[in-house]
Amino acid sequence: MDALAECASDLRGARQSLIAELCEHALVIGEVTLTSGARAHYYVDAKRAILRPRGFAAVSALLAAQAAEWGATAVGGMSMGADPLACAALAGGAQAKAFFVRKQAKMHGLQRRIEGPDLDAGDRCMVVEDVVTTGGSTIEVIDVLREAGHAICGVTSVLDRLVGGGAAIERAAGAPYVALSTIDDVYPERPDREPASSSAPG
Q1: pLDDT, tens digit, for every residue of 46-58?
Q2: How far apart are alpha carbons 5 and 71 in whole angstroms?
Q3: DSSP E strand boundaries for 103-183
Q4: What's the rounded Cα separation, in Å, for the pair 80 and 14?
Q5: Which domains does the chain have, with CATH numbers?
């Protein structure tokens, strides 16, 4: 097996591990209110999976590979969903800075909204999110970065609930959007599943 094929095989294995961890630890069945305000019959708390050794290792490898593919020099997103993901990308070997966007700028200290190393004008930002529903918080990050003069090279989520948020994010970013997994991978038998839903690329 050549190096390229071996790398592809490793990433397939990482994705399978991530999905297994999400299924076992992150999926919660029951009535919940989502960030968007919508009601749902299930919830995916991705942090329950990615903050375990196997889940963290899997998402680290996948995010670092995506950052390399897009030539990202900075990785981050809205705190706190993106905090472990930005760190995971660096742990996986991404040659990038990590940053976090606050919901509101601090009223003391440096009063920054974008935390972490200073982002340069030439930085290529990969925005990361744990779970995407409507994409609202991710689009807010994109707007904050743009207002600060930074370029978006792509957006990656751990899981997409497949209700249109991914398409909205891609339009807002003007850059590719990739979900490492979808709700079809984690909860295919859910009662509200659309018959024609598509899964994330392997």
Answers
A1: 999 999 999 999 9
A2: 20
A3: 114-115, 124-132, 151-160, 177-179
A4: 23
A5: 59-186 (3.40.50.2020)
